[in-house]
Design goal:
It is found in: Mitochondrion inner membrane. This protein is mostly helical. It is built from five helices and no strands. 63% of the residues lie in helices and 0% in strands.
Length: 174
Amino acid sequence: MPEDHDWEAYKVPPTRTPVSERTTSVPNPVNYFQTAFSYVFDTPVTFVRELIERLQTKDKFYYYHQKFRRVPDLSECLEGDYLCYYEAEAQWRRDRMVDQQIVEIVQERLAACKQREGPNQFQNCAKEMELLAQVTKAFQDRYGDLGYHGNARTCLMKQKHRMMEERKAAEEKQ
């Protein structure tokens, strides 16, 4: 760009924006409406919300950090102890959700490894494939064939039947 500027082509912006003069002496009704709205609706709601927030900050509850104590298994509950049955069922459902998430995480890791490695996925992702096989086998052994409406009692019976079959197979080998 040349040193001598063409001041007509590149005009300098004004240093101050001119203030428009009011041409009427009638007040603007929008200002009154905004002020009335603020005092009638906004101020009380804001006050109540800030009060509630102050009370809640004393006892913060982070639901995603909730830790449940381990409860006795269904096999450890006494007969007729329905509260223990309920707690064991809730514990079983939490354990099932955790195991499902573990399987999903391992699947995602394997998919990421396959995406990253491309044609060499069979060599470089062997550990992830083996881990997925182990995790899915363990999940299938514990929760397989229970269906969507499976519960702790049917899972316990399935494990009992599997143990009896393994014991029978071991006796037949001897």
